[in-house]
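Worked Example 4.2. Read the sequence first, then its structure tokens.
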Amino acid sequence: MEAKEPETVFTDQAQAIATAISEVLPNSHHRLCLWHIFQNAAKRLSQVFNEFKTFSKDFKKCVYYPETVEEFELEWQALLDDYGLGENTWLEGLYKLREKWAQVYARSHFCAGMTTSQRSESINKFLKKFFKRKLILREFVVQYDKAIADRREKKRLVETATMQTKRNLFCAWNVEYEASKFYTRKIFHYFQDELKKLVDWRLEFENDDGKTRKYKVVKLVTRNLETREIKRSVIYIPSTQSVSCSCRKFEFDGILCAHALKLFRELEFSSLPSKYYLKRWSNDVTYGLDFDIDMEALKSNLDSSSMVQYSELSHIAQRIIVKGTRNDQSYTFVKSELLKLEEKVESRKNSEQRHAGTNDDIKSHNHENDDGENMRLCDPKIQKSVGRGKGRMKNALEAKHSNKKVSSKRKGTC
């Protein structure tokens, strides 16, 4: 990790883990896995879940939906009041840790939309399909290769579907078409969900200080026969075409929110600034990365000295890659130089192949000449004419005598 702490760490609710993270990774944002929280809620509040069928939906709504601290506080208090949980000790303890699990407190930290320790949990579940507890080492290696092959095959299927499946567009805004070409299939669906929300929001101009423009995006919602306004603050900087929203969805998910898209739509942008298309969500983000190396085939085609060269070049390349990912400037420089080097190597390879082909032609020609010097030329074989000859038919005795004469005449041939 090059001594760089992860921006966010997801764990289950354990005080020992929290203490360790605060000491070892003091600059990382510690988040509690929401899957574990929902599991604990089902155990601690089982009676409430059984009595009220709507509690699960309202509880998740309180966790996920609020985009400001004020909205979260209102939703939390409404949840306690509606279900009579104001004195529940478990919820009181959970509320004290709200900054570690409520989504509204995580929006300033990029998490790629993750809210659970799903990455490690899904990997564990995936590996259990291939490994058993008493697996011997030899079988482990075989099963590991199968697991990797299965993983890559599923990845290829997803990439194929992304590249070959036509996206269904629902609006005439060119930004949707542009996004359909850039995003993967799954991410584009998330982006479309934000586009569909544009009709619910109304954009209102507030002020302009010469450098930034401030807008208010408003939506009316009705709950329990009571209608109220939901407001979002959007700031736009014309000089850099930058936008920021109070919901901070882009900072958290890496996808623009409906509020920012509403602004770009009203300003008649036909294309979004490129900085709002994260490369991690693009179709070609894994281009050239997912390649297989058959080590057995490699060993059979390379001698020991070539294998040493392969290993040495791999280590050099790895060092360059690590140094090239330290910052944006290093990444841009290393990527540019590696692409140039790749072109030079490919050009050299093609030149060597052409040169080798010319040498093979010369050798082949010389070989033919060498064979010609030692070749002994003989008379061609005499083939019997097709059909009947012009002379008369001879009897057996005459034919035998005639064959003896022909044989004596051919003694000079080989």
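Now turn to a second chain, presented in exactly the same format:
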Amino acid sequence: MNQRVKLDDVAEKAGVSKTTVSRVLNHRGYLSDQTIKKVHQAMEELHYRPNVVARHLYHQKTNQVGLVFPTVNDPFLPTWNHA
């Protein structure tokens, strides 16, 4: 399968709504154990993996820090490397 598996695909396979799949993934709202098991089973069978980039875009947060140095010969580089 070349295409990425989407929430819609998982929902259809589990026989639930897209909202229910989202609630299972985000641990939100009341869901029966049976529903959670159905969704997890569908995710496993379809090899579903959440899209991390989409999650970061939605939350507008990546929890990553970037450092930019002008050159490798920057006098502060050894200080940063040993920190």
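Notes for the reader: Residues 33-46 form the longest helix (14 residues). The chain has a mean pLDDT of 85.
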